[in-house]
Amino acid sequence: MLAEIITIGDEILIGQIVDTNSAWMAKQLNLIGVSVKQITSVSDDEQHILEALRLAETRADLILITGGLGPTKDDITKKTLAKYFNMGFRNDAAALEMVRQIFEKYKRPLLDINIQQADVPDGCEVIVNKNGTAPCMWFEQNNTIFISMPGVPYEMMYLMDDEILPRITSSFKLPFIVHKTILTANIGESFLAKEIEEIEDSLPAHIKLAYLPKLGQVRLRLSAKGDNEAELHQEVEVYAKQIISKVNKFVVTDEDIPLEKAILDLMKSKGLTLSTAESCTGGYIAHLITQHPGSSAVYWGGAVAYAYELKESILGVKESTLNTFGAVSEQTVTEMAEGAIEHFKTDYAIAVSGIAGPDGGTEEKPVGTVWIAISSKHKTVAKVFNFSNKRIQNIERSAASALAMLLNVLKETV
Amino acid sequence: MLAEIITIGDEILIGQIVDTNSAWMAKQLNLIGVSVKQITSVSDDEQHILEALRLAETRADLILITGGLGPTKDDITKKTLAKYFNMGFRNDAAALEMVRQIFEKYKRPLLDINIQQADVPDGCEVIVNKNGTAPCMWFEQNNTIFISMPGVPYEMMYLMDDEILPRITSSFKLPFIVHKTILTANIGESFLAKEIEEIEDSLPAHIKLAYLPKLGQVRLRLSAKGDNEAELHQEVEVYAKQIISKVNKFVVTDEDIPLEKAILDLMKSKGLTLSTAESCTGGYIAHLITQHPGSSAVYWGGAVAYAYELKESILGVKESTLNTFGAVSEQTVTEMAEGAIEHFKTDYAIAVSGIAGPDGGTEEKPVGTVWIAISSKHKTVAKVFNFSNKRIQNIERSAASALAMLLNVLKETV
């Protein structure tokens, strides 16, 4: 079964928002064996939407449409769908009831434009949206299903999880798609490719291998498609094992999880605790860690010490160290990491101090100079990096490098 | 001038990565007066790429293509472009020299597949990529420009900023597109629409108004298109002023910046300082603040206090408060905020303590219960929120609500 995703809204095409919906939907569809053929973002323009629907109908069995369902004048998806399917409008009782309940909950008066949110093309089936005022609409035409959803991420996610995905799995016999991901660090894409060339060449036609590089890590993804799920799992496991044994020292994990989650899992299994002492990464490492459920079992917390005063008061960095060597130095980052171990009483600590930019660089320490230290109770290792002149990149690359360093220390010591 | 963006790569269609490139490219193109008509994501499949190129050529004057240029076998963009334009291959001397330099810098041996990265379709112009081994390629056919770039974000960004955008602006006479954004908080989309209905109805055809709701905020965007830039700026300013005076008490800023940046700007102009004390948001608020250049003038730092021990040791929360009322309580969050003021010596502090989930909820305090406090030297306000059962959403909504609360306190006191 082939699906396409169409997102409607000028805000994506002028770059004001990043389309995170499509990746999430694609992931869920793949999990139930539906392949996504194309993702298309079009403007709030009738002719353009009609053309996108027409082309998608020639390629796909299932078309998921998000956006353009708000109550305001710039939202024209509903009108355009009615035109595409040549339908009139009805005010849907169940959709109206949901709008009423939402307005009652927030004790707000119901306006005419809110009542109109329950107007739908008369040939569609309404799926009630419990988290918002725009109903979800299901159309069928020439064996293709069209589903229109609001673009607000959590409304779309609830509708997909609770309504749409279950309906699709129960209505269709779908092939299985099995993915297996291996996360590697500290090896470049080309070298990895050369190392595993023979394994790659031996893959059967229904199994594909992809390389996904990001911030010093390369994710290898094996994807197998077929009718027998158990067999597919076995097959990808065989190839995954071959790859892992070939490049073992670069393998972080064979689960499809980010580096920090792999570290959390490893530390949790050993009963180890972690804290952070961040300057230029400004809480980003803490955020990466704490976005994962269960992180509190390992991560106790930390300091975001932007000002000198906080480096001293929370982490116990000596004033003389800051004055002699500067905040971005081996000495300061070492005292930050060791201070975190001492004050936060964890087994390991990460410390980062650098110049994220765009200001603050000097000839000796240009923007992008970042010191990272990893401490355990017995030992501290510190290393300097020279990243780019872009602030957000420096923050992200510092975090990725700090986590990779922590993993190396853990591999050596536990 | 109309542009389209085509991203090539299975990783987007299986939802393994979010396509952030397209939004960034669209934003840059809009700034120079190029409208993006469509963004299309297709798989690493020859027929599909060829069809996407053909359709885009019928609609656009400029087609930006990213992805599929890696050295590995799953990357087929270059071969497919050669087929589309009916070209052979040449090994490009400038591209090869860049590959050599990069491998020299990292002291890695040059492999055959790396040398092949300098192979390009023989009718294209090569734009050297200083940050990676895949060259950028510029094609022209039937008055349409096709530009193929690597999908690695920072390589693409450098090529766009330093090479492609300057070439486009100097080669074409482009219309101007002027955007003006007004950020509002604490008012729903429909109510906002009703408040400014008359102004919206009075807009001329070349000025559009869009509503962009997100996390309790609504961004209003006026977009004007025409040949006289100064006139367009004047026009949107007139309508923006009308809107701002109509809904003044909900307006955060009339710049296209996020809430935390508006707060930083306001606090900086008044010489005020800020610290944070985060539990369930785990450093996310600190990260939102510190991603902005110049944040160190206002933000001194803070604590990520996940464990009870750190709430006590860094923030001075009393053990008896934690034991009597729990970590998620008005009393604890108040002591966290006041502790931050006292220990970090800032003028204002944000504190957040809640149950982000999925575990840790109780009947009395279900997942999504979040206490937020804002302290100044004179006063603390605390408020409880009941968000959803999804961890990431709870973190994001807690941060957005904390920032909105801080803004309200600042508006009342400074």
TrEMBL record, chains A, B:
<dbReference type="InterPro" id="IPR001453">
    <property type="entry name" value="MoaB/Mog_dom"/>
</dbReference>
<dbReference type="InterPro" id="IPR036425">
    <property type="entry name" value="MoaB/Mog-like_dom_sf"/>
</dbReference>
<dbReference type="InterPro" id="IPR041424">
    <property type="entry name" value="CinA_KH"/>
</dbReference>
<comment type="similarity">
    <text>Belongs to the CinA family.</text>
</comment>
<dbReference type="InterPro" id="IPR008136">
    <property type="entry name" value="CinA_C"/>
</dbReference>
<dbReference type="Pfam" id="PF00994">
    <property type="entry name" value="MoCF_biosynth"/>
</dbReference>
<feature type="domain" description="MoaB/Mog">
    <location>
        <begin position="4"/>
        <end position="171"/>
    </location>
</feature>
<dbReference type="Pfam" id="PF02464">
    <property type="entry name" value="CinA"/>
</dbReference>
<dbReference type="Pfam" id="PF18146">
    <property type="entry name" value="CinA_KH"/>
</dbReference>
<dbReference type="InterPro" id="IPR036653">
    <property type="entry name" value="CinA-like_C"/>
</dbReference>
<protein>
    <recommendedName>
        <fullName>CinA-like protein</fullName>
    </recommendedName>
</protein>
<dbReference type="InterPro" id="IPR050101">
    <property type="entry name" value="CinA"/>
</dbReference>
<dbReference type="InterPro" id="IPR008135">
    <property type="entry name" value="Competence-induced_CinA"/>
</dbReference>
